[in-house]
Design goal:
The structure is a homodimer. Helices cover about 0% and strands about 60% of the residues of chain A. Chain A has about 100 residues and is mainly beta. Chain A has one domain (about 15-100): Sandwich (Jelly Rolls), CATH 2.60.120. Chain A is globular, with a radius of gyration of 13 Å. At the A-B interface, strand 1, strand 4, strand 6, strand 8 and strand 9 of A face strand 1, strand 4, strand 6, strand 8 and strand 9 of B. Strand 9 (about 75-80) of chain A pairs antiparallel with strand 1 (about 5) of chain B.
Chain lengths: ~100, ~100
């Protein structure tokens, strides 16, 4: 599938508890639409590859290194390789279109 | 900059005739916000790396291989490595958040 029409209505599959996803996995790039339920948190992790994306629905707090920001629809993020980062959702679900490098 | 607030109002710089851009260039990932003016066309090209993204404003026609689609805000695309692809804009400018693999 080369095109996803309206990412906010694309059907998703269970990925982890509280997170639904649909992904296009290429040789070096993974594009994933993620729906994260309310009241979820990733207190932080890091990985040796870059990751970026955009919020398409809802509100999510993200931090990268020592920068913390509340992201709304149309806000984008870029996480450098190795940067410690995490996120937290609030009362409603959030949708993000996330792109990361697939390790060789 | 780890966060871009509202990609549709982020300030852009001239990139090519009729195209403005702002990019975050990492080691392996390039995240670029592009504003393509009305009446522009890329009749097609290919490259040995993957590319994907989402339309955030306006309407653009894209083709990847033999699939052709009119993309509106919140429509996403994924271009496999080596796939011939191109695009065309119409009466108004278009904004896309585009992510591609940076060659090593």
């Amino acid at each position: 599938m080369y095109f996803w029409e309206n990412v906010n209505v694309v059907s998703l599959q269970d990925f982890r508890p509280g997170i639904k996803s649909r992904a296009e996995i290429g040789d070096r790039l993974i594009m994933a639409l993620m729906e994260i339920g309310p009241g979820k948190e990733d207190p932080g992790h890091e990985h040796p590859f870059e990751q970026c994306g955009i919020v398409t629905e809802g509100t999510i707090e993200m931090f990268v290194g020592d920068q913390r920001q509340l992201l709304k629809p149309m806000d984008a993020y870029f996480i450098p390789a190795g940067a410690f980062h995490g996120w937290k959702t609030f009362g409603t679900a959030v949708k993000i279109l996330d792109v990361s490098v697939k390790q060789a």
